[in-house]
Amino acid sequence: MRLFAASLATETNTFSPIPTSEESYFTCFTARPGEHPDEPSLCTAPLWVARRRAQQEGFTLIEGSCFFAQPAGPTTKRAFETLRDEILGQLKAAMPVDGVLLGLHGAMVADGYDDCEGDLLERVRAIVGPSCVIGVELDPHCHLTLKRVGLADVIVLFKEYPHVDIVPRAEELLTLVLKTIRGEIKPTVSLYDCRQIAFYPTTSEPNTSFVTRMKALEGKDGVLSVSFGHGFPHADVPEMGSRMLVYTDNAKAAGDALATKLGQEIIALRGKTAPPNLDFLDALDQALATDTSKGPAIIAEPADNAGGGSASDNTMSLKELIRRDLKNVAVAPMWDPVAVTFCHAVGVGGRLRLRLGGKTSELSGDPVDADCEVLGIAKDCFQSFGDARAAVGDLAAVRIGGIDLIINSNRCQALGRELFTLAGLDPSKYDLLVLKSAQHFQAAYGPIASKVFYSETQGPSSQRYENHPYTRVQRPLYPMEHTEGRLLV
Fold first, then answer.
1. What are the pLDDT digits (tens) for 6-52?
2. 107 backbone dihedrals φ, ψ, rounded to 5°
3. Is 72 exposed, middle or buried, given 0-12, 13-18 or 19+ CB atoms closer than 10 A?
4. How far is the CA of 54 from the CAs of 51, 61, 63, 257, in angstroms?
5. Which residues are registered as beta bridge partners of 63?
6. What is the C-alpha to C-alpha distance for residues 97 and 463, in angstroms, rounded to an integer?
7. Which end of the chain is more exposed for a tag (fewer CB within 10 A), N or C?
8. Is there a contact between 241 and 193 (Cβ–Cβ < 8 Å)?
């Protein structure tokens, strides 16, 4: 038995001012055949898992290239076609194969391509033919388009947000692909469209219990896999939205009924899945009134979240903290490669005047000019993200009055505590942390927080989705309009 595995992934915010080029993939994550490290990354877990299980389970793995770019605006046409065609060329050279494993994101958009994953799958299917089994792992912030669902034999999504389960889901995907190749199961798909967009953090109810119920259904009564696609609301593409995906073992009617039932449960939770999205000033007032004896209050800043395609250089929150002359407060991370370079030049203990943030677009606000003390510096840094690591680039921590600011050279969101510890700081000792992230910070910072507040600042990843200037999304769609769900497949 021969399997081919590869990965091409990014999350595209079509409202982001930051273009995604070939260089975006090369500087973030690129591993060509044989170069993949002995650890998983966000979208390469299928390859990593297959590498570990190949000899034990009696199959040959042919590794293709893996590419990932930090979320931003659309990928250029040239970049997508070049990277796609490299993988397709490797697949052709590997033929014949019995199965294909693809680690994709699911919300990639390129110039001229609304559905990059669907386009890739169409070309893969043309090479391998109808009998080859194609398995795909996707991020739940994906677009579960009819095209990709029709072309793949099995699609498995991460269930958790933050995405701490990328490896377990890849293990499940590989198991289902191998069983399908061996004729032990016949995956049959059902897809239900909830006709809505929302925020579904699985660290809080009712989302936690819903994930538990999904897991409990799998492996019983012919149910092979249950996935909930949250959708990625920061993309203006036709099939954006929340969808329920069910695979049964050749039991179409039962799958349709289950996908419909679960999809309607999601619809019934409209308005209840997300914590309050406060104006930043309100969030700050409530955070400052919080008892922080057991840990810092945390304010999340999703609108300027690099993980959603934003620049992470908006200055609104920093300006307000400075205006109030707050003490024992920290902001992390702000993307400012120029300021990082200056901090590394003067070294720890150095003092200098920096122009911080406010560089990318009008959504970044105006720069902050401030006298700063360099508290810590580090080069070529990574932060933890579940079983994976995410590149931070060079790092610097500066103090402005009583406020500590973490700045870095590789645009990223707050994931692991290494943002602080690599600069010699302890995040648990602050009274307040303002983190540029939507939800992934919860895995590392949630356990030390006294309370978490979600706030609205400025940026192309706003959680007030109705404010996005959609022109291409299929309407009606909740919360912009009231509408019912529907079974698609």
1. 999 999 999 999 999 999 999 999 999 999 999 999 899 999 999 99
2. -130, 35
3. buried
4. 5, 6, 11, 36
5. 5
6. 43
7. N
8. yes
Q: Cβ distance 225 to 154 under 8 Å?
A: yes
Residue with tokens 């049964």: 248
Q: Which amino acid is at 476?
A: P
Tell whether the torsion through CA atoms of 323, 329, 335 and 336 is positive or negative. positive
Q: How far apart are CA 269 and CA 391, in angstroms?
A: 36
Q: Which amino acid is at 177?
A: V
Cα–Cα distances in angstroms (integers) from residue 254 to residues 38, 189, 224, 259, 407, in the given order: 40, 10, 12, 9, 52
Give the chain's end-to-end CA distance (angstroms, integer). 30
Task: Output b/e per residue, 90-101; b: 16+ Cβ within 10 A.
Answer: bbeebeebbbbb
For 168-205, how does the pLDDT look when each residue is reduced to its tens digit (9 = 90+)?
999 999 999 999 999 999 999 999 999 999 999 999 99
Asked if 300 and 453 count as a contact pair (C-beta separation under 8 A), the reply is yes
> ∠10-11-12 over CA atoms, to 5°?
110
What 3-state class would DSSP assign to 263?
A: helix
Token representation of residue 221: 């009564």
Cβ(445)–Cβ(454) under 8 Å?
no
CA-based angle 281:306:77, to the nearest 5?
140
Distance CA 470, CA 26 (A): 31
Q: What is the pTM of this model?
A: 0.95
Contacts of 252 (CB under 8 A, 6+ apart): 188, 190
- Please name the residues in contact with 265: beta carbons below 8 A apart, sequence gap of 6 or more: 210
For 276, other C-beta atoms within 10 Å of its C-beta total 10
Residues contacting residue 481 through CB under 8 Å, at least 6 positions apart: 475
Q: Which of 229, 236, 195, 23 is closest to 109 using CA atoms?
A: 236
